[in-house]
Amino acid sequence: MVLNNIEDLIEKYHNAETSLQEEAQLKAYFASDNVAAHLEHYKPMFQYFSQSKQEQYTKDVPLNSKKTKLYQWISVAAVAVLMLGFLIPNWDSGPKTLADYSQEEQQMYLEAKQALAMLSNNFNDGASSLKVLDLASDNFNVGLEKASYIKEFSETTNKLLKN
Question: From CA 18, how far away is CA 10, in angstroms rounded?
């Protein structure tokens, strides 16, 4: 009766369905000297579990706190640099308008604006031309597919006429 109970507990143990009390029963059974012969191979496993439970790590673990302080100061410096980066460009009384610049700078700004607008228009025209090529490529592929049907038809017709 006890042997059947132990075998059932081992099966539950393998399925991870045992409670702590049932595992204690298994450990006690395999710690004793009267273990069934066909269950002997479980004995070292449960003895290992009992021994490893008593093991403790006794070495000191050094903590390097110098590195963490260095990283903290680096993060503080990074935040300070970012704050200065946001504050310095806006140091004067606010955003400038085109009228705040000299006549020569205004003229350069307008010329650059016209050049970029022309470049944008030409780029858009080129992109629309590429769309036409894409459409032509699609139509060409459809034509090739239909031509393959004609080839199949002619091969089949030739076979029929030869017979």
Answer: 9
pLDDT at residue 57, as a whole number:
79
DSSP string, 116-162: HHHHHHHHHHHHHHHHHHHHHHHHHHHHHHHHHHHHHHHHHHHHHHH
- Residues spanned by the domain of 8: 2-54
With a cut of 50, which residues of the chain have pLDDT below it? Answer: none
In a domain, 107, yes or no: yes
Q: Given this model, what pLDDT does residue 152 score?
A: 81
**Long-range pairs of 33-40 with CB within 8 A, sequence gap ≥ 24:** 36/3, 36/6, 39/6, 39/7, 39/10
Q: Identify the three-state secondary structure at position 41.
A: helix
20 within a domain of the structure (yes/no): yes
What is the structure's pLDDT at 146? 81
d(CA 112, CA 106): 10
- What count of other Cβ atoms lies within 10 Å of the Cβ of residue 10? 17
Does this model's pTM top 0.90? My answer is no
Q: How far apart are CA 144 and CA 136, in angstroms?
A: 12
